[in-house]
């Protein structure tokens, strides 16, 4: 049987024209066909949207009123505080309800049994974060610990866990103390007048992260026009701002990964013509991290220390030595090292600084709390003036105080994504469905936090044994905050230094006794926290 092999050089177009005549395309027909195709696609897509809106009705779950196509997006974006919006909806619709981001259903709960089921008992079925327009594909090499899932997440977590051990934090405590001393030195010049402490705390946390994690002193607390501070502030603002892409990814969540790919392609194309680091600070930060990794790799063994970056680089070297890296459990690729270093800096930046700001607001507006803390701290360091990672753990009331600050002022809402279709407490949850845990409602539940009114700031309530999922200040389950121990010791050292050196007094700006929040990546006090600092006599 002969096979017909097509070879274009044997085709004579003139001969084809003679045989079949000139090929003409009817432009009107082409336009009509295009219109029919687009109309059909639009109708099918609208039908899919309508079908999506039946998600909660089929399950007998209440929802706030929705707008077709928009869902509840305009309500949540208008509020600019998703945590408080969920809190209000919980009061109206109960502990289990749903809302729609565009036409994507999001299940919301403050039911402690459902939360325990999702975060503990069925943690493997909720092993991913909610997708956003900022997330790369699950298969992307740029995935970090926060957005990784399943085996990739387990591998990364195994590598990073030793960084936050008690022994490691003990080694890093002198560095944190030095950063806290710089904070006191800077604030000494701001006494006896209203001062917005939020900006000072941001610089302190960034100083701590760069010194402890990267072994680099960027002098950010003293240098007011620090490029590091300006760029990182811009990165956080870019991530928090609601822009066209965030709206688009909510309205058309099926095409979210395509949108992310187009952003990456556009940025690479743009980089051919301009220095993208000046236009997009995130790329500036990535270059800085790359340079830092290169410097550390080329450094002699004598100047290397077992900090966060070195642990990741050691895992990276193991990856390179082993040809069949499926045989090793602890390794990291070059890009994973970069991505997780960036994550550590961004994750620890505003979370800790906001908690410090909120703590100072409580100290200024509740003098009794300030007196209790000062008495405990001063009595401890009257006997032992040397501050270290061990004796800060002996300050029991300080520990209760920080937990209560995080209970009253949580940093945001916890959201997980279903990675395997399952049933939780009688609710069928399909694959890829986000589930949000209303932390404000959990932290304000009188059944969990009574008998003292949860609306009252009362640190002693944490002395009573509670439900293990009643406190979600650092998340819960296998995917809880890996940097919790680091954050707590950083908070404690900073607060000890602050309380020993200053008395916190209400300013006219904080006379209302209530903080107002806005929410991007985390909940942040609008316009920061303004107090008056009065230098204590015989301060340390």
TrEMBL record:
Belongs to the cytochrome P450 family. SUPFAM superfamilies: Cytochrome P450. GO terms for molecular function: heme binding; iron ion binding; oxidoreductase activity, acting on paired donors, with incorporation or reduction of molecular oxygen; steroid hydroxylase activity. The chain crosses the membrane at residues 29-50. This is Cytochrome p450 06345. The keyword Protein transport does not apply. It comes from the Eukaryota. Heme binds at residue 481. Coiled coil: none annotated. Its cofactor is heme. It comes from Brachionus plicatilis. InterPro entries: Cyt_P450, Cyt_P450_CS, Cyt_P450_E_grp-I, Cyt_P450_sf, Cytochrome_P450_3A. Keywords: Heme, Iron, Membrane, Metal-binding, Monooxygenase, Oxidoreductase, Transmembrane, Transmembrane helix. Cytochromes P450 are a group of heme-thiolate monooxygenases. They oxidize a variety of structurally unrelated compounds, including steroids, fatty acids, and xenobiotics.
């Amino acid at each position: 049987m002969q096979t017909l092999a097509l070879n274009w050089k044997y085709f004579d177009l003139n001969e084809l024209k003679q045989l079949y005549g000139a090929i003409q395309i009817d432009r009107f027909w082409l336009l009509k066909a295009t219109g029919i195709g687009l109309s059909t696609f639009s109708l099918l897509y609208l039908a899919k949207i309508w079908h999506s809106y039946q998600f909660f009705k089929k399950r007998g779950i209440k929802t706030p009123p929705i707008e077709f196509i928009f869902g509840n997006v305009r309500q949540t974006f208008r509020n600019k505080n998703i945590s408080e919006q969920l809190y209000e909806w919980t009061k109206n619709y109960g502990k289990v309800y749903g809302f729609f981001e565009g036409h994507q259903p999001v299940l919301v709960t403050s039911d402690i049994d459902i939360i325990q089921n999702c975060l503990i008992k069925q943690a493997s079925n909720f092993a991913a974060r909610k997708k956003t327009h900022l997330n790369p594909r699950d298969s992307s090499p740029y995935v970090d610990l926060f957005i990784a899932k399943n085996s990739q997440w387990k591998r990364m977590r195994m590598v990073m866990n030793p960084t936050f051990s008690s022994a490691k934090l003990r080694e890093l405590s002198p560095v944190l103390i030095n950063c806290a001393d710089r904070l006191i030195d800077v604030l000494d010049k701001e006494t006896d007048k209203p001062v917005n402490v939020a900006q000072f705390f941001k610089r302190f946390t960034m100083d701590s992260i760069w010194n402890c994690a990267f072994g680099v002193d960027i002098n950010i607390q003293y240098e007011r026009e620090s490029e590091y501070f300006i760029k990182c502030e811009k990165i956080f603002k870019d991530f928090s701002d609601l822009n066209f892409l965030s709206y688009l990814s909510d309205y058309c969540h099926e095409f979210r990964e395509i949108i992310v790919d187009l952003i990456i392609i556009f940025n690479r194309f743009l980089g051919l013509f301009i220095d993208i680091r000046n236009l997009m600070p995130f790329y500036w930060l990535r270059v800085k991290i790359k340079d830092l990794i290169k410097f550390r790799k080329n450094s002699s063994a004598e100047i290397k220390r077992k900090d966060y970056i070195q642990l990741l680089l050691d895992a990276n070297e193991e990856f390179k030595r082993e040809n069949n890296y499926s045989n090793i459990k602890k390794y990291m690729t070059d890009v994973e090292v970069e991505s997780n270093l960036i994550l550590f800096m961004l994750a620890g930046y505003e979370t800790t600084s906001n908690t410090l700001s909120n703590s100072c607001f409580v100290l200024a507006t509740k003098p009794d709390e300030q007196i209790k803390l000062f008495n405990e701290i001063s009595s401890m360091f009257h006997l032992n003036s040397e501050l270290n990672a061990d004796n800060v753990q002996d300050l029991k009331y300080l520990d209760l105080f920080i937990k209560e600050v995080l209970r009253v002022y949580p940093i945001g809402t916890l959201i997980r994504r279903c990675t395997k279709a399952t049933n939780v407490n009688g609710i069928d949850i399909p694959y890829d469905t986000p589930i949000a845990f209303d932390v404000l409602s959990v932290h304000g539940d009188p059944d969990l936090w009574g008998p003292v009114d949860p609306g009252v700031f009362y640190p002693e309530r944490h002395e009573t044994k509670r439900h293990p999922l009643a406190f979600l200040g650092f998340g819960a389950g296998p995917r809880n905050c890996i940097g919790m121990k680091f954050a707590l010791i950083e908070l404690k050292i900073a607060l000890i230094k602050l309380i020993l050196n200053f008395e916190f007094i209400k300013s006219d700006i904080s006379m209302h006794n209530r903080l107002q929040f806005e929410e991007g990546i985390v909940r942040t006090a609008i316009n920061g926290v303004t107090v008056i600092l009065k230098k204590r006599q015989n301060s340390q």
